[in-house]
Design goal:
413 residues, mainly alpha, Growth Hormone, Chain: A, globular
């Protein structure tokens, strides 16, 4: 495909692009508000910490299962049909939060929501490849769409707090999400999507997805993404617990009170800034420098304790911002477009699995070795950051994906 035809095709799908941005904003609004929801649901339902954690792992485990077992639907059904199917399931599950008020009902609906997210997110990730002009353009679009995810992650928790302050149930957040789903489904039905590229030699099946488990590109990028996600969730799940009882100067106390919010704001801002940075620097160098800074933030926090962590861990959000969308983009771009749904689902599996297990592992080591002191848990998270930095060093030295990305630029875009 020539550059001119690629630009013409990509420019014709502005509505699809806006819908994709809105979709990421919407589901981030609910999934990243889980901390505030757990805080309220624990008291409302009389839950233990272990029980309340199901509000997080039920969704994450379902996303993981959906990604690996249903990701191929984006390639088989087409992006548009898979997106509408996922949004319909998600919208119905969200609306049903007002159908009951028991722990079992909530966790069941969160699990169904996670399955739906796996369907429409893998389709949306595959769609980004369809509307991109090159592998580099794919990476920039991925950073932008994840920027809108970051905005949703800010709005969701703030909305739950607003509902609480006005005497309204946190369940209204899900009703708002259901209404957004209905609007997006209607818009999607009236919008032209690019045709889905199919691969006759590798039909879109579960077997093809499982075959990709043996691919070094899928496994390599999935490992790096899993380590990144482990670092990210460490902050927004456990940093408030780590900083409990913190005392310090006024500025430090402000950072302690708004630590997660500062982290989310910087993460969102950094993803939009990422498009500008990737226009000027090679993606491998950006990943290397930023993962090095992240590792430095974690290891200095582990050594210096709360007095250091209160500043460095929230500020690490600026450097975490581009890691996930860039690695995700490059991992998907290594493959033909006919496999993009399956690859996106496979990477999503490792993403969600890490998001579910890493906070649990941090809690376990903190209880086992530190009597509940979360500083021990952040010691484990520092290990995750070290592995991520190590992977970035190897990527800079050997550039293992260069041939696959060059082939994709020539044949797929």
């Amino acid at each position: 495909m020539t550059t001119a035809s690629a630009e013409s095709r990509a420019g014709g799908y502005a509505a699809v692009t806006v819908l994709t941005f809105t979709m990421f904003f919407m589901f981030a609004m609910t999934t990243d508000a889980v901390g505030e929801i757990i805080r309220l649901a624990r008291g409302e339902l009389g839950l233990t910490n272990t029980q309340a954690s199901a509000f997080h792992w039920a969704t994450m485990s379902a996303i993981a299962l959906s990604g690996v077992f249903l990701g191929f639907l984006a390639d088989r059904m087409g992006r548009k049909s898979a997106i509408i199917l996922g949004l319909a399931i998600y919208g119905v599950a969200s609306a049903l939060f007002f159908a009951g008020n028991t722990f079992f009902v909530y966790v069941s609906l969160l699990f169904v929501s996670g399955l739906a997210i796996g369907i429409f997110k893998t389709a949306a990730l595959a769609l980004i490849g369809d509307i991109s002009q090159s592998t580099d353009d794919h990476t920039k679009k991925m950073n932008t769409v994840e920027g809108f995810f970051g905005v949703g992650a800010i709005v969701g928790p703030a909305l739950v707090v607003y509902l609480e302050q006005n005497g309204m149930s946190w369940r209204w957040l899900y009703l708002i999400a259901a209404m957004l789903c209905a609007v997006m489904i209607l818009a999607a039905l009236r919008t032209n999507y690019p045709p889905t590229v199919t691969t006759e030699t590798r039909p879109a099946t579960l077997g093809n997805t499982l075959r990709l488990l043996l691919s070094p590109y899928a496994l390599g990028f999935s490992f790096a993404i899993a380590m990144y996600v482990a670092c990210e969730v460490a902050i927004f799940v456990w940093l408030p617990t780590f900083l409990e009882g913190f005392e310090g100067p006024d500025l430090a106390m402000i950072f302690a009170a708004y630590a997660v919010m500062i982290f989310f704001v910087l993460r969102a801002a950094g993803r939009f800034l990422g498009v500008w940075i990737l226009d000027r620097f090679d993606w491998k160098l950006v990943i290397l420098v930023f993962t090095g800074v992240i590792f430095a933030c974690f290891i200095l926090s582990a050594i210096g304790g709360k007095q250091v962590a209160v500043f460095l861990l929230p500020l690490s959000g600026l450097f975490m911002s581009m890691i996930y969308p860039t690695l995700n983009s490059k991992g998907i771009s290594c493959y033909p477009k006919g496999d993009h749904g399956a690859v996106a689902g496979l990477i999503l599996f490792f993403t969600a699995l890490s998001a579910a297990l890493a906070p649990l592992a941090m809690a376990f080591v903190s209880d086992l070795f530190g009597g509940g002191d979360m500083r021990i848990g952040f010691g484990l998270a520092t290990g995750f950051a070290a592995l991520l930095f190590g992977a970035a060093i190897l990527n800079q030295l050997f550039d293992p994906a260069s041939r696959a990305l060059a082939t994709a630029n020539e044949n797929e875009y």
